[in-house]
Structures are given as C-alpha cells and as structure tokens.
Amino acid sequence: MAFTWYQHLTSEISYSLVMTVLFSLTAVKAMALIVDYKKFQSWVDSMLKKEKGKNIVLIDIGVGVFGLLVVVLAFYVY
Fold this sequence. Notes:
By secondary structure, the protein is an all-alpha fold.
C-alpha cells in the first residue's frame, strides 16, 4: 500500500488519487478479514444458511457492478 501512495505522490498521472484510494480501502478491508478470519468465516457460513444464499448473490452482483464501473472509469479517464 505504501508503494501505491509513493507512486501517486511522485508521478504526474492524472486521477491517480482515485485508484490509490480504492486500492488502499480494499487493502485495509482485506487485512481486517485476514486478521479476524474466524469471524469472517462464521459470517459467510451464516449468510449461506439463511435465505439460501440470497444475500451472497446480492453482494456478488454489487461487487461485479462496482468492478465494471472501475474498469469503465479507467478507460474513460485514461
């Protein structure tokens, strides 16, 4: 994560702040899941049991749409 911020601060790439912030937030969330994996595992288990995984499908669709927006933004900006 430090390298991403270093690249943002030392390069002249326009809109690099957007990608840097997105990457940093994703990295922080990933580290939180890695550190507290038991809690994350129990959360996933409970999501799969109730409502036959409907919430997982909604989260999956949301993440897919967000990913598509990031890719479209990357092509539009650059």
